[in-house]
Write a structure and sequence with these properties.
The protein is of the alpha/beta class. It folds into 3 domains: about 140 residues, no CATH class; about 100 residues, Rossmann fold (3-Layer(aba) Sandwich); about 190 residues, no CATH class. Helices cover about 45% and strands about 15% of the residues. The strands form 5 sheets. Strands 5-4-3-6-7 form a 5-stranded parallel β-sheet, with helices on both faces. A two-stranded antiparallel sheet has the order 1-2. It has a two-stranded antiparallel sheet with strand order 8-9. A hairpin with a 2-residue loop joins strand 1 and strand 2. It is globular, with a radius of gyration of 27 Å. The N and C termini lie far apart (about 70 Å). InterPro entries: Bact_transf (IPR003362), EPS_sugar_tfrase (IPR017475).
Length: about 500
């Protein structure tokens, strides 16, 4: 009778049901939506295969109960394998690439399952039709899940729902740092609601904290008091041996998640591995990959894409050049010295967007600089020509940098190239020079001119330390949306 319930360390647990706080139930309707979308994608994949190969008089589709298999059994097989691969795990939904990796893994499992079933039951199926059905379903699934994630991010940013209400535990400095990071990205779904300090703090300092601060409280009781469903252990709050384990024991069966925010920051997941030694989990951080086969592939991709881009864009280059000449007589291109890979100087190619006397007029506008970094930025810069404003807003002025990419001075993706100066790259910012500067980058897709200099440097350093070909492709994809939205461009 009580076989479904167990006692562990004094906490009642249920094998079949976990009690979750009301505020953490956003994932249930979201997972239900994903299940419906995945079923529709699988059925649509089968329909695509049928229509594609029947029009080409393909054989192998006339099997008993084909409609039931294609539109019922196969989609159900997809759902089971998606569930088995953790594609509906709420901890992986809404952020990161792990959700999509698990969908792809499930697709491979579906293909293997269908192949084994066809062989076992001696069903003659067209290999191309099966491949089309599975591949089509996988593509539809990724697209629909991408749209669902965008909708979830919209809800999190605008409506402030579907979040994990989080209690931060640690010193004031550590918890405020984590607070700054997670609130900077509301799409991540972590909403700090309170702080529990492990050290003392003055009343004046506590009054400056944007969320309630507590000390000397029972953490479990505080979680229920503030309505949290997640506890984030920040920095050194877990330094006392055994305390974190005891807290994890206390949380068993409560439905409250426990996450640890280590002091190592701005390091992507693939570089971090856990190596347990006698029950002690050690975080192993690998060095950044700044050479090798991946870098050669990146350079090859850069130059091939740049050459094809220049050839395809020649008519647009001609139209833009003519418009610049009509607006203000002078050179079509603007070339400026920038610092590149390993500190080498090069001249960046851009379409000229300012009047020819822009440099002479700069001295009168220095006090109006709206940037806190090395570049002069001004939203309504009077030196910019009418066509120049359009080119900047649409980012068309940067297309000639494809020439720099062909010459090996720049990359398609990388840190932004900055003007040469005496003290421009002191301290950690010098790490930006370990890779080639890029036409686009993490800074450009994260706000561009709307970001502070400190934040821009942090984003560039994050890219340097964590770059990969997959990351480059993701940034290029995000660039398309940023360009069309004209976000932060002036």
């Amino acid at each position: 009778m009580n076989g479904a319930r167990k006692k562990y360390n004094g906490v009642t647990r249920s094998v079949w049901m976990r009690t979750r706080p009301r505020l953490a139930r956003w994932h249930r309707p979201y997972i239900l939506i994903l299940i419906v979308l995945d079923y529709a994608a699988a059925a649509l994949g089968s329909y695509t295969a049928v229509t594609w190969w029947e029009t080409r008089a393909s054989t192998g589709l006339n099997v008993p109960f084909f409609a039931e298999i294609a539109y019922v059994a196969l989609p159900l097989c997809w759902l089971i394998l998606l569930w088995g691969n953790g594609a509906y795990d709420r901890r992986r939904l809404g952020i990161g690439a792990d959700e999509f990796k698990r969908v792809v893994r499930a697709g491979v499992a579906v293909l293997a399952t269908v192949s084994v079933a066809a062989f076992g039951f001696r069903v003659l199926l067209s290999r191309w039709s099966v491949l089309t059905a599975v591949l089509g379903a996988l593509i539809y699934m990724l697209i629909l899940r991408g749209l669902a994630r965008r909708a979830l991010h919209f809800v999190r940013r605008r409506i402030r729902h579907a979040n994990h209400r989080t209690l931060l535990v640690g010193t004031l400095q550590e918890t405020l740092y984590v607070y700054k990071i997670v609130t900077r990205s509301p799409a991540a779904g972590l909403q700090p609601v309170a702080i529990h300090l492990t050290d003392g703090v003055s009343a004046a300092r506590r009054a400056q904290v944007p969320i309630p601060v507590y000390t000397n409280r029972n953490i479990i009781g505080l979680v229920h008091e503030v309505g949290a469903d997640t506890i984030a252990i920040c920095g050194s709050a877990n330094s006392e041996p055994g305390k974190l384990r005891e807290l994890a024991w206390e949380l068993e069966g409560s439905g409250v998640d426990l996450v640890v925010a280590p002091q190592i920051t701005d390091i992507a997941g693939p570089r971090v591995h856990i190596r347990p030694i006698e029950g002690l989990p050690l975080l192993h951080v690998e060095e950044p990959t700044l050479s090798g086969v991946s870098l050669l592939a990146k350079n090859a991709m850069d130059r091939i894409c740049a050459i094809l881009g220049v050839i395809a864009l020649l008519p647009i280059f001609a139209i833009i050049g003519l418009a610049i000449k009509i607006t203000d007589p002078g050179p079509i291109f603007f070339r400026q010295k920038r610092i590149g890979h390993e500190g080498r100087l090069f001249r960046v190619w851009k379409f000229r967007t300012m009047y020819t006397d822009a440099e002479e007029r700069l001295a009168t506008l220095v006090d109006l600089n709206e940037s806190d970094g090395l570049l002069f930025k001004m939203k309504d810069d009077p030196r910019v020509t009418p066509i120049g404003r359009f080119l900047r807003a649409s980012s068309l002025d940067e297309l000639p940098q494809l020439i720099n990419v062909i010459l090996g001075e720049m990359s398609l993706v990388g840190p932004r190239p900055l003007p040469a100066g005496d003290d421009d790259f002191e301290g950690p910012a010098r790490r930006r020079l370990l890779v080639r500067p890029g036409m686009t980058g993490l800074w450009q897709v994260s706000g561009r001119s709307d970001t502070t200099w400190e934040e821009a440097v942090r984003l560039d350093l994050y890219y340097v330390d964590n770059w990969s070909l997959a990351y480059d492709l993701a940034i290029l994809w995000r660039t398309v949306g940023v360009v069309f939205a004209r976000k932060g461009a002036y």
